[in-house]
Amino acid sequence: METALKPTDAQYAAIRGNDPAADGNFLYAVTTTRIFCRPSCISRVPRRENIRIFAGADAALAAGFRPCKRCQPDKAPEADPRLERARALIDRRLADGEPAPSLAELAAVAHMGATHLQKRFAAAYGVSPRGYAEARRVATLKQELRNGSGVTEAIYGAGFGAPSRVYEKADRWLGMTPADYRRGGEGLTVTVAIRRTSMGLTLAAESPRGVAALLFGTSAATLLDELQAEFPAARIERNDASGSEIFAALEAVLRGEPVPRSLRLDLRGTPFQIRVWTALQAIPAGQTRSYREIAAELGLPGAARAVGSACGNNIIGVLVPCHRALRSDGSLGGYRWGLKRKERLLAGEKKTEAAAE
Ligand SMILES: [Zn+2]
Question: At 274, which CATH number?
């Protein structure tokens, strides 16, 4: 937790003078009343030794202070027109496909010193000017991806330089968990069957496009919760008689046979995740690949960690064989459904492989 600071002379003067120019620079809390305020608040001026300074409302709330009802320091302050000019300049440059303006340029349009602008901007919008520009580019990227642009095209269209840099960070930048991305499929109906298989209690989910999920667990309730979390906007219909083709495919793969060609998978994720999951499907039974090898295959040699996390986000177990992806040192890495299951799957595939030779 952030340690609250005592006020500087300038801060104390601003609090005593109810100085609106100091709003956005800091908030102050009073240890005796446990309330925090903006510098301009006309509440009674507290004794200096009882004042604690915070950068923002989150920090003050985290330290156990309550927002003042009069100045509402937890609400966003009125937009400062000087800061708005700086923000508009960033928007305009990015819209024109140009690099984001420098801090000096922003300071000039805002008529503020660079350091002061940096601070005020962060206090008003919650991010630095640079962070704001990056967030805008990411928003544009998302928009273009949703509009169906090709990934590379979308990356350049959003003003990013190198696609490889975006792939590595896309999932974090886009803030897209698979669940977020799937929300695009609102109005989707997913049919669900839960049966016991040699993998344990197994949930098979099917959308009109194909297999949407294959999950393993110990209770029907947690399996259904997990599915709902992955498809928050979908209507989930349970019918344990459905999904026969999926269960048959699962048993076939567990016997060492390939996934039947007729079975369609409905892969939903970020473009990067879909590339990883497709690469996994090309690994034959009985073989494994390291996250690094998969990254290299995709032409993204630096993305081993991102490959690992895409494997962890796979929700079509066994049929998208993320269990065949290992750490580069040969250790198992992770497995969404437990390392014991991963170990058993790999051991089973080795055995059938040996029997076939
Ligand atoms: Zn107040």
Answer: 1.10.10.10
Q: Can you tell me the distance from the alpha carbon of 325 to that of 307, in angstroms, rounded to the nearest whole number?
A: 9
Task: With CA atoms as reference, report the closest residue to 210 among 270, 275, 259, 255.
Answer: 259
CATH code: domain of residue 157: 1.10.10.60
Indicate whether 3 belongs to any domain.
no
Positions marked catalytic? 37, 322
* Same domain as 349, residue 246: yes
Q: Domains in the chain: how many in total?
A: 3
Kindly give the distance from the C-alpha atom of residue 10 to the centroid of ligand 1, in angstroms, as a whole number: 19
pLDDT band at 144 (very low <50, low <70, confident <90, very high): low
**Structure token digits, residue 175:** 């803030």
Q: Which residues contact 38 (CB under 8 A, 6 or more apart)?
A: 23, 27, 68, 71, 73, 77
- Give 72 Cα–ligand 1 centroid separation in angstroms: 6
Query: Is pTM beyond 0.85 here?
Result: no
Q: How far is the CA of 43 from the centre of ligand 1 (A)?
A: 6
- The residues whose Cβ lies within 5 A of ligand 1, an ion, are 37, 41, 43, 68, 70-71
Residue 2 falls inside a structural domain: no
pLDDT single digits (tens) 102-134: 999 999 999 999 999 998 888 777 678 888 887
Q: How far is the CA of 132 from the centre of ligand 1 (A)?
A: 29
